[in-house]
Design goal:
Blueprint lengths: L9 H9 L6 H4 L15 H8 L19 E9 L5 E3 L3 E5 L2 H4 L8 H6 L1 E8 L10 E9 L2 H19 L14 E5 L7 E4 L2 E6 L1 E5 L1 H12 L21 H9 L7 H7 L12 H14 L7 H4 L1 H6 L2 E7 L9 E2 L5 H4 L8 H6 L3 E9 L2 E10 L3 H20 L3 E5 L2 E4 L10 E5 L7 E3 L11 E3 L1 E5 L1 H9 L2
Parallel strand pairs: 1-4, 10-12
Antiparallel strand pairs: 1-2, 3-9, 4-5, 6-9, 7-8, 11-19, 12-13, 14-15, 16-19, 17-18
This protein binds a DNA duplex (12 and 12 nucleotides) through α10, β11, β15 and β16.
Length: 470
DNA sequence: GCATGATCATGC
DNA sequence: GCATGATCATGC
C-alpha cells in the first residue's frame, strides 16, 4: 500500500500529522472501516495509528516510527470554566519492563529510545461525545527539554533503584517529580514479574505528570489566542541539583527561628496575632518569602518545578510533645461520586500519590519555631491502609448506613474513626451541618437525602510518626 | 487530654 | 457561593 507520507522521514510524518489540526477522526479516516467496539474510551490513539497513519499498533520497545525515531502520542485536553485549556490527565508512555530496566542506564534506556522525540496530538475531550468527533487542537513534535532532563533522569533512576531493591510492587507516582510510574492495565490484577522479588508487581508505565503535561502544552501552544496552560518562572534548578536539595538549602539558615523573627526578616508586618488563622497565614507567608514567591499567589502555581511536579505544600504546627495540633484535611468528597469510584481511579488515592512538601513549626515557650522542612510521599504500605478507610467509607455511603445515633445537636456516624486506622479517618468538612452533598442512597437512620460534607483526614499521630520524626 | 463532631475565614 | 485549608467545642 502506498502511504500518504514517508515513514522513514520525520519531516514527512510531521507534515502529514499537521493536517489533523482542527479536524476530527471522522473527517480524516475511513469511518466505515472502524468497528463499533473500537469507538470506546482509550481507542483514539489506536484509530489514529491504524486508520490515519496506516500501521498496526505495536507495543515494542522501538518508537512507533522506528526509522524516523519518532513516537506517536495522543492525549485529551479539558476546558476550564475560564475557557483555558489544560491536560485532562497524565500522559502515559511505555510500559516499564521491570526485568530489563535494571540492566540499563538512563541514556540507553527503553524510556529514552522510545520517548526522546514524540509527535504529540492533543484533542479536546467532551463528555458524552463520540471519540470520532473529538476536535484535534494541537499537533507538535516535542523532545525532552534540556532544562528538565536532570530531574527526569533523577526520576528514572529513583524508579529503577526501587525495582533493583526488589520493591517494584511498592512503586508509587509520589516517588518522583516529573516522570511518574503510573498503573497501567484493566485493574489491579494486571501484574508482571519483577527481577529481585517473588512478589508480582502491578503493571506500570512511565508517565509525565499532569502538571508536567500542562507545561508541555503551554510551551508548544506558543502565543495562540486560546490559552493552553501557563508558563511559570523557575527557581532555576541548576545542573546536578535536585529540587529537594535546592529547597532544603533555602530553608536551612532559617531553621530554629521564631515566627516573629521570620516576619521581621521578610518584612511581613501585616499579620495580626489575634486573627483566627494567624499561624497558617504566617507559615504560608514565610514559605513564600523563603522560596521567592509573591504573597498574592500560591507556591504551587508560581514555582515551575512545583507546578510541573504537582507538589502539595502543607504547613503543620507541632505541640511541644511533637504531636501536630490538628489533623490534616483534604477536599471534601461527593457521596454520589465516591460510590462510583474504584480505588485505583479514586480521588483520594490520586491525592495520596502526590509529592508533598511539609513545613513544620513547633511551639516552644509559647513561641512558634521553624523546625523542619521535608519532601514526602506516602509509602506503599500506608496507601494500602488508607485504601481500607476509603473502602469502608464507600460501603457505608452505598448502604445508607451513615448515621448511627443523634444526640442533641450531634450526630454519631459509622464513618471510619481515628482510632480504627493508623493513617487516616473521616470527619466533617463543611461550613456547618447544613452544608451538605446529596446522598446516592437515603440514610437509613435519618431518612435524609443529603448529608453534611465530609473528607478524609491524615491522623496527626501518623503525621508525627511517619512524616515528622522519620 | 484526646477523639469526634462542628464550624470558621479567606480568596477566587 | 463555595472550595479549601484550617481551627474550635464538647463530652468522655
Amino acid at each position: 500500500m502506498n502511504l500518504p507520507y514517508n515513514p522513514k522521514d520525520k519531516k514527512s510524518i510531521i507534515d502529514f500529522a499537521k493536517l489533523l489540526k482542527d479536524k476530527s477522526l471522522r473527517q480524516v479516516c475511513d469511518v466505515n472501516a472502524i468497528k463499533n467496539d473500537r469507538r470506546g474510551k482509550g481507542h483514539f490513539g489506536q484509530i489514529l495509528e491504524e486508520f490515519y497513519f496506516y500501521y498496526k499498533p505495536n507495543s515494542g520497545s522501538e518508537p512507533d516510527f522506528p526509522i524516523a525515531k519518532l513516537e506517536l502520542k495522543s492525549s485529551p485536553l479539558k476546558r476550564l470554566k475560564n475557557k483555558e485549556y489544560r491536560s485532562k490527565e497524565r500522559l502515559a508512555l511505555n510500559i516499564i519492563n521491570y526485568v530489563n530496566v535494571v540492566n540499563q542506564n538512563f541514556e540507553n534506556s527503553d524510556f529514552i529510545k522510545k520517548n526522546a522525540s514524540i509527535l504529540l496530538i492533543f484533542y479536546l475531550y467532551q463528555a458524552g461525545q463520540d471519540i470520532l468527533d473529538y476536535h484535534i487542537k494541537l499537533v507538535y513534535e516535542w523532545s525532552l527539554p534540556s532544562i528538565d532532563l536532570e530531574i527526569i533522569k533523577n526520576d528514572w533512576e529513583t524508579i529503577t533503584q526501587k525495582i533493583a531493591d526488589g520493591r517494584a510492587h511498592e512503586l508509587s507516582e509520589g516517588d518522583t517529580f516529573y516522570l511518574g510510574a503510573c498503573t497501567k492495565g484493566k485493574n489491579s490484577l494486571s501484574v508482571r514479574k519483577q527481577p529481585f522479588s517473588e512478589i508480582p508487581a502491578k503493571q506500570r508505565a512511565y508517565s509525565f505528570k499532569q502538571g508536567y503535561v500542562n507545561h508541555i502544552i503551554a510551551s508548544i501552544a506558543g502565543d495562540k489566542k486560546e490559552v493552553y496552560g501557563k508558563l511559570i518562572p523557575s527557581i532555576a534548578v541548576t545542573n546536578k541539583q535536585t529540587i529537594e536539595e535546592i529547597v532544603s538549602a533555602k530553608f536551612k539558615p532559617l531553621i530554629g527561628k521564631t515566627d516573629l523573627e521570620l516576619l521581621v526578616q521578610f518584612h511581613l508586618d501585616c499579620f495580626n496575632p489575634k486573627m483566627k488563622d494567624y499561624y497558617s497565614r504566617v507559615s504560608k507567608a514565610i514559605v513564600k518569602s523563603v522560596l521567592g514567591v509573591p504573597q498574592n499567589v500560591n507556591v504551587e502555581d508560581y514555582i515551575e518545578e512545583f507546578a510541573k511536579a504537582e507538589i502539595i505544600v502543607r504547613t503543620v504546627r507541632l505541640k511541644e510533645n511533637n504531636l501536630p495540633k490538628e489533623d490534616i484535611s483534604f477536599p471534601s468528597f461527593k457521596y454520589e461520586e465516591i460510590v462510583k469510584e474504584e480505588w485505583e481511579g479514586s480521588n483520594f488515592k490520586a491525592i495520596l500519590e502526590h509529592k508533598f512538601l511539609f513545613v513544620f513549626f513547633q511551639f516552644e515557650n509559647d513561641q512558634l519555631v521553624l523546625r523542619k522542612v521535608r519532601f514526602w510521599n506516602m509509602p506503599y504500605a500506608d496507601i494500602l491502609e488508607a485504601e481500607k478507610v476509603w473502602a469502608k467509607t464507600k460501603e457505608i455511603v452505598l448502604k445508607g448506613h451513615i448515621v448511627r445515633e443523634v444526640k442533641g445537636k450531634t450526630r454519631l456516624t459509622n464513618f471510619p474513626k481515628k482510632t480504627i486506622n493508623s493513617v487516616s479517618h473521616v470527619r466533617p468538612h463543611a461550613s456547618n451541618a447544613a452544608d451538605t452533598y446529596p446522598l446516592p442512597t437515603k440514610d437509613k437512620f435519618t431518612q435524609a437525602k443529603e448529608y453534611t460534607k465530609h473528607c478524609f483526614w491524615l491522623n496527626n499521630t501518623y503525621v508525627r510518626d511517619e512524616i515528622y520524626l522519620r
